[in-house]
Write a structure and sequence with these properties.
The mean pLDDT is about 95. The N and C termini lie far apart (about 75 Å). Helices cover about 35% and strands about 15% of the residues. The strands form six sheets. Strands 12-9-13-14-16-15 form a six-stranded parallel β-sheet, sandwiched between helices. The chain is an alpha/beta fold. The radius of gyration is 30 Å and the shape is elongated. Bound molecules: thiamine diphosphate (TPP) and magnesium ion.
């Protein structure tokens, strides 16, 4: 659909065009200049930056949309934020925040005058200055857009449970080719027009990416239109390149789509019926590098991919380029836009809204300002009764699900807590949470559907990217959430995790950014218990990936049972500005700690399990049996029991690690133990057999600087797996109790004389196991029915 009305008077048209010119001028200035910001002197080489960095091509389009958003925010008193999918258009967004006055409020040094403009230009992509993208440093940004693909999911995450908010979401046509972006169009099926706000997606069809045309720009218009109709949107086209015509078209279209959004919301809110509407979407087809040089060195530049970055960069070497730059900058007629002090003219500045109506100062983009603590039920009320270690079994994540359901209920009024997952929430046994409010679903239902609800708070779509993007958007606008995922497939969002960790690291260094709730992952259906699925579903490597990131923002927890999982969950939901990775199985499994012990254990993060150890009297073990993760803990305790029976004189100390970061040196991670504390627990010189949930090398990576590192012998997942029995999985990876016993006798010098006999016994046991599982398809009864407390 195309709107042909011309709502702007000639004065309004002239002003909005002037506003756009100002933003474009400031964008080019940031890319090229370090002095002479208003071109009051002839441009010379000294005024030009020695290294020209940044992106021009996307910027005029972003500025165009920004100016037109300002117009409707003002005329219709909207509460809106701006998400620049092509975040490389940083100069444009920075320019707009400066024109609105916000930039100078946050950074008084960058004042609203010629001196401030000079600094504004110089700092961009300059050592000691600001990054080239719409980074955390940019007021009004909750989306850096450096890694493309997440704009739409972030926008929807921001407006869930924010009924008055509109997220203007610019999507690059290159960005729209990415997998995460493509799947995220479906977010409209999860948006409840009564309780949620609205997203206004603007597909920015400038035709090109870095060095290629884009698919969406070159496909026939009918196909493009059908594509978005198919996704459930109503596309409005704004196409052209003549600014006067385009301003009228854009203004008319903006008026139409805002009216449509308001009417959809009113209708749903008045009727109380939250059916899925067809939300409007704008397709803006305008030239890449619009208003820039048409040709450079005889080559097409405007309306072509050559304008993507710095359209010409030999300014210092080529006098023609210097002249081209001056002509280009002068084309914006800065003298008509800024007064003699270099201050933006008041009659133009007033086109933008004021105070927190400015998109650059919308508090939702600094979510910590709006963050409210969750009402937390006492997690001890959900405790599994554990009269003795190993006396009962429970499904840890099912217990966690009941707690999360009640967190959700306790915050029903605030509407600030949601759960996210790629269709695995029930499988990961958070069934109670689903039964609580249901899963969000706005489309058709049939009577047999299970807990689909228009106001459900459990968000499920089979796209890890979309789940992650929604949750990030939700958290960054000041709310809380938890993401559950199969352990192996969380790798799909490795890169999104990276970006969020970078965002948190940077924001924690910016004093006006307030802390937001942590991003919490439950990784379940983990490597050791992939009974249905086998090898493809076995990958515990996300932890290895996570620990690469700045230690101040990452936390990894491996609770061994339900009560420790509850304690860790409570802690994660109260924490701020972290990414908490919690790995825990969902199967019915041994429970070790009662709630009191669990709280103490989790508070310490690791500790000696005295009830499983027998070195209390001497205080000096022969061997330390360390474990992290539920299955390794089980195998360790089973190995300890064998050792007790076979070698009663052996002094064994059992250490369980919940908080993996305790292993790191304190200088490297705030949770790290002091070396002295590490020595107290792991001894200065005794063998440590460490059974670990994931790839064993990580234990060495975390402890390589520790005093007793040469005696640490780590076992873990060695990339062996298939669809087999639970015990066969640990055997395949040498993590089973029998291998652990063999490790002990090999490494404790005093056991040399017994080694051969014990090893033979263990090897025989492993042969019994092999034969039994192949014959019966199940683990041996002595394994399956094993109990610590016998
Ligand atoms: C996931 C990802 N892949 C690749 C890049 C490198 N990259 C930066 S900009 C760009 C082209 C983007 O094109 P488009 O989305 O159309 O933006 P615009 O034309 O508005 O600059 C690419 C490929 C990236 N930033 N992120
Ligand atoms: Mg493009």
């Amino acid at each position: 659909m195309t709107i042909e009305e011309q709502p702007l008077s000639s004065d309004e048209l002239a002003k909005i065009h002037a506003y756009w010119r100002a933003a474009n001028y400031l964008s080019v200035g940031q890319i090229y200049l370090m002095d002479n910001p208003l071109l009051r002197e002839p441009l010379t080489l000294e005024h030009v930056k020695p290294r020209l960095l940044g992106h021009w091509g996307t910027t005029p389009g972003l500025n165009f949309i920004y100016a037109h958003m300002n117009r409707v925010i003002k005329s219709q008193d909207l509460n809106a934020l701006y998400i620049a999918g092509p975040g490389h258009g940083g100069p444009g967004i920075v320019a707009n925040t400066w024109l609105e006055g916000t930039y100078s409020e946050y950074y008084p040094n960058i004042s609203e005058d010629a001196a401030g403009m000079r600094r504004l230009f110089k700092q961009f992509s300059f050592p000691g200055g600001i990054p080239s993208h719409v980074a955390p440093e940019t007021p009004g940004s909750m989306h850096e857009g450096g890694e493309l693909g997440y704009s739409v999911s972030h926008a929807y995450g921001a407006v869930f449970d924010n009924p008055d908010l509109i997220a203007c979401c610019v999507v690059g046509d290159g960005e729209a080719e990415t997998g995460p972006l493509a799947t995220s169009w479906h977010s409209n099926k999860f948006l409840n027009p009564i309780r949620d706000g609205a997203v206004l997606p603007i597909l920015h069809l400038n035709g090109y990416k870095i060095a290629n045309p884009t698919l969406l720009a070159r496909m026939p218009k009918e196909e493009l239109e059908s594509l978005f109709v198919g996704y459930g949107y109503k596309p409005y086209f704004v196409e052209g390149s003549d600014p006067d015509v385009m301003h009228q078209k854009m203004a008319a279209t903006m008026d139409a789509v805002i009216a449509e959004i308001k009417s959809i919301q009113k209708q749903a809110r008045d009727s109380g019926v939250p059916a899925r509407p067809t939300w409007p979407l704008i397709i803006l087809r305008s030239p890449k590098g619009w208003t820039g040089p048409k040709e450079v060195d005889g080559k097409k530049t405007e309306d072509f991919w050559r304008s993507h970055q710095v359209p010409f960069a030999a300014v210092r070497e080529d006098p023609e380029h210097l002249k081209l730059l001056e002509t280009w900058l002068k084309s914006y007629k800065a003298e008509e836009l800024f007064d003699e002090n270099g201050t933006f003219l008041a009659e133009l500045k007033e086109l933008a809204p004021n105070y927190q109506k400015r998109m650059s100062d919308n508090p939702h983009t600094n979510g910590g300002l709006l963050l409210r603590k969750l009402h937390m039920p006492w997690f001890g009320d959900y405790a599994v009764d554990v009269p003795q270690p190993g006396a009962v079994k429970a499904e840890a994540t099912r217990v966690q699900g009941t707690f999360l359901r009640d967190v959700m209920n306790a915050n029903a009024k605030e509407q600030n807590f949601r759960l996210f997952g790629p269709d695995e929430t029930a499988s990961n046994r958070w069934g109670a949470a689903i039964e609580g409010t249901g899963r969000t679903w706005l489309d058709a239902t049939i009577p047999e559907d299970d807990h689909l609800a228009t106001d459900g708070r459990v968000m499920e779509i089979l796209s890890e990217h979309t789940c992650q993007g929604w949750l990030e958007g939700y958290l960054l606008t000041g709310r809380h959430g938890f993401f559950n995922c199969y352990e192996a497939f969380i790798h799909i969002i490795d890169s999104m995790f990276n970006q969020h960790a970078k965002w948190l690291k940077t924001t924690s260094e910016i004093e006006w950014r307030r802390p937001v709730a942590s991003l919490n992952y439950l990784l379940s259906s983990h490597v050791w218990r992939q009974d249905h699925n086998g090898f493809s579903h076995q990958d515990p490597g996300f932890i290895d990936h996570v620990v690469n990131k700045k230690s101040s923002v990452i936390r990894v927890y491996l609770p061994p049972d339900a009560n420790t999982l509850l304690s860790v969950t409570d802690h994660c939901l109260r924490s701020r500005n972290y990414i908490n990775v919690v790995v825990c199985g969902k199967q019915n499994a041994e429970q070790w700690l009662d709630m009191d012990a669990a709280i103490k254990h989790c508070t310490a993060g690791l500790g000696v399990w005295d009830w499983a150890s027998n070195d209390q009297e001497t205080g000096e073990p022969d061997v330390v049996m360390a474990c992290a993760g539920d299955v390794p803990t089980l195998e360790t305790l089973a190995a300890v029991k064998i050792l007790r029976e076979l070698l009663p004189e052996l002094k064994v100390r059992v250490v369980n690690v919940v908080n993996l970061m305790k292993l790191m040196p304190q200088e490297e991670h705030p949770h790290g133990l002091l070396d002295r504390e590490f020595e107290d627990i792991f001894t200065p010189d005794k063998p440590v057999i460490f059974a670990y949930h994931g790839y064993p090398w990580l234990i060495h990576r975390l402890t390589y600087r520790r005093p007793n590192h040469s005696n640490i012998h780590a076992r873990g997942y060695k990339e062996e797996g298939t669809t087999s029995t639970p015990f066969d999985m640990v055997v395949m990876n040498d993590l089973d109790r029998f291998h652990l016993v063999m490790d002990v006798v090999k490494r404790v010098p005093a056991l040399r004389h017994r080694a051969v006999y014990v090893q033979q016994m263990m090897r025989d046991k492993l042969i019994d196991h092999q034969q039994y599982v192949r014959q019966h398809g199940d683990d041996m009864p002595e394994i399956r029915d094993w109990k610590w407390s016998d």
